[in-house]
Design goal:
Layout: E1 2-4, E2 19-20, H1 32-42, E3 45-48, E4 63-68, E5 72-80, H2 81-103, E6 107-114, E7 128-129, E8 136-144, E9 149-151, H3 152-155, H4 161-176, E10 179-181, E11 193-196, E12 202-203
Parallel strand pairs: 1-3, 5-6, 10-12
Antiparallel strand pairs: 2-7, 3-4, 4-5, 6-8, 8-9, 8-11, 10-11
């Protein structure tokens, strides 16, 4: 159900992500009321959010505060409406099916470390993270239906069932998102999977 709620969002912490000189434009055809209607139809739990503080450099197209998209989130996160739809499809079509395949059960919770963050990507301030336009998320892990926890920091390496699950999920994410960064990408991503939707393509799986 769509819940209208207006509030300035708090800046969420985020680690390194794909970046650009300025935030690229959001995908066309998935903006405004038409996009919100699609969230309603998909059953995504969200609240309409005010434009986050940060000025023109940190503009989020049709910002929404999401608490569940395909699966419940451990904390609400502000993303663009279009990115919320992408995350919902990923959870329903990739995450859920892979969990059933690997563990014979569904996922009840997605644990993330942050979504929107009005931050520059480089030390000289010339580039901006995709988090600054609400089109990135840092996923720390998941909880399965039986309460089992899959943590990127602990389970990415090792070769067990949870590790295989995370590696396959990252490969599937590469087919859906523009950039996927993993613990194999660099030390800054040792404890999460970074997914974003931008004009560049990079698969860290």
């Amino acid at each position: 159900m769509r819940v209208k709620f207006y509030a300035i969002c708090a800046v969420l912490p985020a680690l390194l992500a794909a970046c650009a000189v300025r935030p690229p434009p959001a995908p066309t055809g998935q903006q405004g009321e038409a996009c919100l209607a699609r969230l309603d139809a998909a059953g995504i739990a969200y609240a309409v959010a005010a434009m986050p503080a940060g000025g023109a450099a940190c503009t989020v197209d049709t910002p929404v505060r999401v608490s569940a998209a395909g699966v419940a989130w451990n904390q609400p996160g502000v993303v663009s409406c279009a990115f919320a739809l992408e995350l919902d499809a990923f959870a329903r079509e990739d995450l859920a099916s892979l969990a059933l395949q690997r563990f014979g059960q569904g996922v009840r919770l997605l644990r993330h470390r942050g979504t929107f963050a009005c931050r520059r990507e480089t030390s000289d301030g010339s580039r901006w993270s995709l988090h600054a336009s609400g089109r990135a998320i840092d996923i720390a892990g998941f909880e399965l239906a039986d309460g089992s926890v899959i943590a990127v920091e602990r389970d990415w390496r090792g070769g067990g069932a949870k590790s295989l699950f995370l590696h396959e999920l990252a490969r599937r994410a590469c087919r859906r998102f523009s950039v996927v960064l993993t613990p194999d990408s660099d030390r800054d991503h040792r404890d999460h999977l970074h997914l974003d939707s931008g004009p560049w393509k990079l698969c860290g799986a």
